[in-house]
Amino acid sequence: MSTTAKPYHIGRKISRIRELKDMKQEALAQALGTNQQAVSVIENSETIDEEKLEAVAKALGVTVEAIKNFSEEAVFNYFNNIYDNDFSHSNGAIQSNQCTFNPLDKLIEVYEEKEKLYERLLQAEKDKNEYLEKLLNGK
Fold first, then answer.
1. Number of folded domains in the chain?
2. Are residues 109 and 80 in the same domain?
3. Which of 43, 47, 83, 96 is deepest in the core (most CB within 10 A)?
4. pLDDT single digits (tens) 28-83
5. pLDDT in tens, 83-96
6. How far apart are CA 43 and CA 20, in angstroms?
7. Residue 55 and residue 29: Cα distance in Å, rounded?
8. Are 42 and 11 in contact (CB under 8 A)?
9. What 3-state DSSP class applies to 3?
10. Which residue numbers delimit the HTH cro/C1-type domain (predicted)?
């Protein structure tokens, strides 16, 4: 008796894609307009009809072909290629993104800009008060 999974179990593929997208069964159920138990039934089904598969694909944000052709090996190869490419571009060194500006300088700029805005607001209020006083004294 073989313990390996059948190569085309659509429910398992849906389950793995959902998990890779960090989505719970309840969230998928809500997107499908059903309940968690129905999603569990789908994920335990070896086959599902095309209409339901299209709805699941849309809810997961993938194509029907992506679900049908999904394999763990392909996912691992994809991420390994990205990882390998990052190293090949950096000659084996880990690259880190560096700020091209000093965050403290930006903070000081924002603070100074805020001060200028408050000063303008204060001046506008003073001007308004002076105008109102002139109107009152003129009567």
1. 2
2. no
3. 43
4. 999 999 999 999 999 999 889 999 999 999 998 888 888 888 877 777 776 677 65
5. 555 555 555 555 55
6. 14
7. 11
8. yes
9. coil
10. 14-67
Residue the block writes with tokens 């763990």? 72
Which structural domain range is residue 41 located in?
Answer: 10-89
Same domain (yes/no): 82, 106: no
The residues, ordered by sequence, that sit 6+ positions from 28 with a Cβ below 8 Å of its Cβ are 18, 39, 56, 59, 60
Q: Are residues 17 and 85 in the same domain?
A: yes
pTM of the model: 0.52
Is residue 32 within 8 Å of 89, Cβ to Cβ?
no
Tokens of 70: 């999904």
83: domain CATH number is: 1.10.260.40
Query: Is residue 4 situated within a structural domain?
Result: no
